[in-house]
Amino acid sequence: MNRRSLFSSRRLASCLIVVIACIPGFVTTAAESIFPEMPGMVSYTYRNQLSNDVEGTLDKIRDLGIKDMEFSNLFSKSAAELRKMLDERDMFCSSLGVSFDDVQNKTDEVAANAKTLGAKYVRVAWVPHKAPFSLEFARQTAEVFNRVGKELLEKHGLHFCYHNHGYEFVPYEDGTLFDVLMQETDPKYVSIELDILWVHFPGADPVAMIEKYGDRIPLLHLKDLKKGVQGDLSGKTPVENDVALGTGQIDLPRVLMAAKKAGVKHYYIEDESPSIDTQVPQSIEYLKNLTTDSLK
């Protein structure tokens, strides 16, 4: 076979591969990236470093390639000062976390800070309560969420999110008290920031939770739980039990596939451990290399 014939044969073979791959029902073997974008970061991950050096720590986070921030603290700065630091680094804040007390009693101040930062979401991550979380308290909490969520949206144009923390998954009827919170809050005013560790820890399935409530979950915390750790309904575990993504108990490929299908808008890494300088880059690399071949 001469060179021209060989070239023509290879070109024909390449064209046939393209045509066959386009046939309806034909499945290619090429793996697809599950998480092609860069995640955001929860400030709580770098709480100790931010407390000592806000600008230097933002530089470190930016140098990892991260732009999207969720602040859980202003770190002794004004919202305007933090916004200036973010703007200078081509970073942005999409969500502001505040206390249950502040969102109720300082709603206007919370909203002003969120809007100055550029955030669209206001999040509460813990409701002070006497354990175990009760049906009566779940209903009382739902009333507060509805009231605060309505005020934030209608008065300030902000979306309220509740961040689950594990204690809400007390069994009740055919579900849990988390389901009660969801049933008794208005989807227009109350959304969820799903923390997948705090779904898995009390024994629930993050994938099932996303599939059930996906249209109410605009925000998601990416975390993983150390292998061998047994969960409970306390909403607490030693910080050392936070491990790099992909090294713990949670089936992250399935979680991310479900979250993508549900339309989650913001994903944040949250790592509470003292090993963030090694674990956060490891988590980012894991997400970067995650493909459909990783599905179990």
Any overview of this molecule?
There is one protein chain. With 296 residues, the protein is of the alpha/beta class. The longest helix is centred in the middle third of the chain and has 22 residues, at 135-156. The strands form 2 sheets. It has an 8-stranded parallel β-barrel with strand order 1-2-3-4-5-8-9-10. It has a two-stranded antiparallel sheet with strand order 6-7. It is built from 12 helices and 10 strands. It has a single domain (34-294), classed as Alpha-Beta Barrel (TIM Barrel), CATH 3.20.20. The protein has helices at 3-21, 47-52, 54-63, 79-88, 100-105, 107-117, 135-156, 177-183, 197-200, 206-213, 252-262, 276-288; strands at residues 40-42, 68-71, 92-98, 121-124, 159-163, 171-172, 175-176, 190-195, 219-222, 266-269.
Characterize this entry briefly:
Helices cover 43% and strands 14% of the residues. The protein contains twelve helices and ten strands.
Topology record:
Elements: H1 3-21, E1 40-42, H2 47-52, H3 54-63, E2 68-71, H4 79-88, E3 92-98, H5 100-105, H6 107-117, E4 121-124, H7 135-156, E5 159-163, E6 171-172, E7 175-176, H8 177-183, E8 190-195, H9 197-200, H10 206-213, E9 219-222, H11 252-262, E10 266-269, H12 276-288
Parallel strand pairs: 1-2, 1-10, 2-3, 3-4, 4-5, 5-8, 8-9, 9-10
Antiparallel strand pairs: 6-7
Helix pairs in contact: 4-6, 6-7, 7-8, 10-11
